[in-house]
Amino acid sequence: MHAVKLNNLTKVYGKEKSVAVDNVSLTVEKGELFGLIGPDGAGKTSIFRMLTTLLLPDGGSAIVDGYDIVKDYAYIRSTVGYMPGKFSLYPDLTVEENLSFFATVFGTTIEENYHLIKDIYIQIEKFKHRRAGKLSGGMKQKLALCCALIHKPTVLFLDEPTTGVDPVSRKEFWEMLKRLKQQGITIMVSTPYMDEATLCDRIALIDQGKILSIETPENITRSYPDKLYAVKAENMYALLKTMESYEHAASSYAFGEYAHVSFREAISEDTVKRYLQDSGLSGVELRPIDATIEDCFINLLKK
Amino acid sequence: MKQFITFVRKEFAHVLRDRKTLLILFGMPIMQILIFGFALTNEVKNSAIVVIDYAQDEASQKLISRIEASRYFEVNKLSTDHHQIEESFKAGKVKLALIFPQNFYTDLMHQNKAQIQIITDATDPNTANTLTNYVTAIIQDYQSDLNQSASLPYRIIPETKMLYNPQLKSVHGFVPGVMALVLMLVCVMMTAVSIVREKEMGTMEILLVSPFKPLLVILSKAVPYLILSLINVASILCLSVFVLDLPVNGSLLLLFAESTLFIITCLTIGIFISVRTGSQQVAMLISLMGMMLPTILFSGFMFPIENMPKVLQLVTNIVPAKWYYIIVKLIMIKGLGFSAIWKETLILASMTLFLLIVSLKNFKIRLA
């Protein structure tokens, strides 16, 4: 049985009928760490809210943990764990009070499921008498995760858990998710950060409510159609301009301190270098690279 | 049940940890009672008046000393130049001038009638009227004392008695009014804001995705405010009994029972507002504009309902505070029992029931 199964799920907002989620179908296996990757406004939060029974779909259906999201919403509400994108704990309650409040609301106690949150809670335990509003961003996320986990959910929905969190805390957070996965909890996570995608078992790339691709991160990067080069020159702006007008270039875009370029046909590195130098660019560097998830995403968007 | 208790405890923590909320909750009622009780009264006390006594005889002296003895007036100037009157009025120093003509006593004794001129500053007509009434009352008093010795054949002496409020104290009207106002404000605004805050902060999302029944979320929000409001009622009553000398003439238990009913009415209004709005500001604005203003204008405690146009009189009927105000007045001041207020109680109760049903119908178990 699948942990989560979406069947042509659709969500339309407002009078102008803007489609936020457009016929999305996907399945998440039991015990999987599934990533929903896409930019802001792609429809990630709408999908999460429908799966957690907070929104009614306008079309299609979905099953979470064997229950229908519309008919059996009460069951789903007592079994899943949900961590909304916005920090959603009580800032005027202490760390401990927040945790015990959510434990009681879910009909359990901190002691009963302490083993689940132990790894995470231990990091914030020394602040347990501090009010949640006074915690740092990373701490808040850890506390929110503890609160979402305290009732031993079968499926955990994490909506952009690492947005606004520093890189170190982000890394720690993903390590925690890995450990939770080992405990058999199915995790569905959304993120706008492409670099986090490789940490998932499988990912769905999503944009404007439509699924672009569902694959393991390795397969997605491996399936990148063209050979990709990282190019650098002293004057990056001129480089990008030159590349745009280069007849052999299929695509070129800035990527960190490099420009990522692919070509319409196999072309020798020297030919490209010579062309760039002839166009008056200095300090030209060029080397073949493996495509990242972001490259794949950009490639999929062009289609 | 354990969940419910935890939730209520959490709600108390929210209120007790926020100094501003605490200040509004407990500071405001006390302030209002004190302000309405002492500062904003219709009574006219210690008004400065001028007396110009051209007579300087027995009768005028007696009258002046009577006026001086009354606590309503301060006779601060005894000049004999009536040109100064207008000056004093213009300077705003005096509210009333009393002028005795020459031969006041002789006229009174020999012609059986004498004249006194009363001039008042009618910029504020109410005050002018009240002051004139006070002076006339003192003069009549003096007159009847004089007549006791002389024997006149026919006389009608009206004996007026101000029932329930013999001293015409204005606190009698204000305390029930402030109680209605405070409860309206605390219950409606606080509940509405506290529920909407959960929506705004996003905690409602988590609470909805939990086995906790959404209805219980609402109920557990209402319980702390019910308790806090009852504390408020108690503190207002204490203030009115011990500071403003306004005793509770009727049954204290009945008063608390009716207050509880009115608090529940307010809580359901608060819940209704919170169900229909999405942000704290909107909730606050609706509670203030939609609830406070009608309470002040239409409950009858600031402006007598009988003086309003018929249409507005009809409007006052849907203001819950009006009925509560009537109930409190009847219990506290007239000391009446339940048989006198069952009609108002029934109206309040049905309003509550109606609001409760409407807000439950409107309550959303999902986000949108």
Summarize the structure.
Chain A has 303 residues and is of the alpha/beta class. Chain A has helices at residues 44-51, 73-79, 95-105, 114-124, 137-149, 167-182, 217-222, 236-244, 269-278, 293-302; strands at residues 4-13, 18-28, 33-37, 59-64, 67-68, 81-83, 155-159, 186-191, 202-207, 210-215, 228-232, 249-255, 258-263, 285-289.
Write up what this structure looks like:
The complex is a heterodimer of chains A (303) and B (368). With 303 residues, chain A is of the alpha/beta class. Chain A has two domains: 218 residues, P-loop containing nucleotide triphosphate hydrolases (Rossmann fold); 75 residues, Alpha-Beta Plaits (2-Layer Sandwich), CATH 3.30.70. In chain A, 33% of the residues lie in helices and 27% in strands. Chain B is mainly alpha-helical and 368 residues long. In chain B, strand 1, helix 3 and strand 2 form a beta-alpha-beta unit.
User: Largest interface: which pair?
Assistant: A-B, 32 and 24 residues
CATH topology of the largest domain in chain A: Rossmann fold
Tally of helical segments of chain B: 14
Query: Structural class from helices and strands of chain A?
Result: alpha/beta
How many domains comprise the coordinates of chain A?
2
Order of SSEs of chain B: HHEHEHEHEHHHHHHHHH
What would you call the structural class of chain B? mainly alpha
Q: How do the SSEs of chain A run, as a string of H and E?
A: EEEHEEHEHHHEHEEEHEHEEHEH
The fraction of residues in strands of chain A falls at 25-35%
Give the assembly state of these chains.
heterodimer
The amount of helix of chain A comes to: 25-40%
Strand order of the largest sheet of chain B: 2-1-3-4
